[in-house]
Amino acid sequence: MALHQYNIHCILYELRPSSTKAGGALMISPNALRLLDRLGIYEDLKLKGYNFERIAFKNAEEVTTDLYYFGDEHLYGYQGLRVYRQVLLTELRNTATRLGIPIVYEKKFSHIVSESTEGVAFAFTDGSTRSADLLLGANGIHSLVRKYIVPNIVPKYMGVVAITCAARKAALQFPAGIDYPLPVSIHGENGAFVIAPQGVDGGEILVGTQQAYPEQDRAGWDALFADKGRLLSLFRTDMQDWPRIAQSALENIPTDTLSIWPFYVVPKLEHWYSPGKRVIILGDAAHAIPPSAGQGACQATEDSFTLATLLARLSSKVPLDDALDFWQRK
Ligand SMILES: Cc1cc2nc3c(=O)[nH]c(=O)nc-3n(C[C@H](O)[C@H](O)[C@H](O)COP(=O)(O)OP(=O)(O)OC[C@H]3O[C@@H](n4cnc5c(N)ncnc54)[C@H](O)[C@@H]3O)c2cc1C
Hints:
Structural class: alpha+beta
Distance between the termini: 21 Å
Radius of gyration: 21 Å
Bound molecules: flavin-adenine dinucleotide
Strand order of the largest sheet: 5-4-13-14-15-12-16
């Protein structure tokens, strides 16, 4: 859609079917909301999510140690927004449809066939091939497009898995007599415990903490995700050390919503583009970052708009090589 704003024709290829539902919610900060506003979807989106300004940091004694302004209308022009992924995805898809941008579902990129100074040819797992001036790989942390640019780089596990669930705010036991700030990140001996409202009225909350855990292969992570009893006991490790509000959350976990989030990052890459400059990666494919910042999707959004702006301004004075170097550096 960012490319479309500059009349750059593009086609999206997505491996999943259009019926796939995205789970969970995202925090979106003003850097990305500003861009979604340019697409004309922010006003609608903000009515469909939980708007907030600050994330409170507390210690195990419930003392507020810091307030982080994730969003603020006066400072940044926008509040922060916590919105279900599926809501955002639906808005983006509807906008793409309205703009006439084709999305081809169940089409999995496989490999680059050839690259020249004129363009790139690439193949899908169904055996078909396409060619284009540029191929942009916005295909996530396990990007196959990245393999073409840096074949030996693999995402690095940080040794930590987050365990999360979606619970009811009404089940929490708040300390009496104070206006308890949410979202909150409580820090104690056990690490961090996060409570973040979601849904328009914030009646549902994400609850999460993290545990050191050995790296698993795909089957191992799937098995851990499926083992709700194991997840529950991991989640409740040393729960007596958390303040009462966290304990009350842990006592009221809807086990079917238990989920895991192994922390992986993409090591810093020298280039986000191929030597021929016709294959470019962005978002998590290029720079999946530690999840605690709540910035991965926001930065992926920034990537797409900044890249589109540069591509639209290419000229003999601003060749593709220089533009891409500048884009990655900034
Ligand atoms: C539990 C959790 C919570 C998070 N919370 C936040 C948050 O609050 N705020 C925030 O900003 N970020 C958050 N993030 C990070 C955020 O989800 C990612 O940074 C963001 O989704 C990256 O976007 P992307 O488009 O680069 O990749 P993705 O969202 O991974 O999208 C990649 C797409 O490419 C498709 N694809 C993959 N391979 C192929 C292929 N070979 N061919 C065709 N299609 C393919 C995939 O199906 C997918 O649709 C969170 C992440 C997790 C796991």
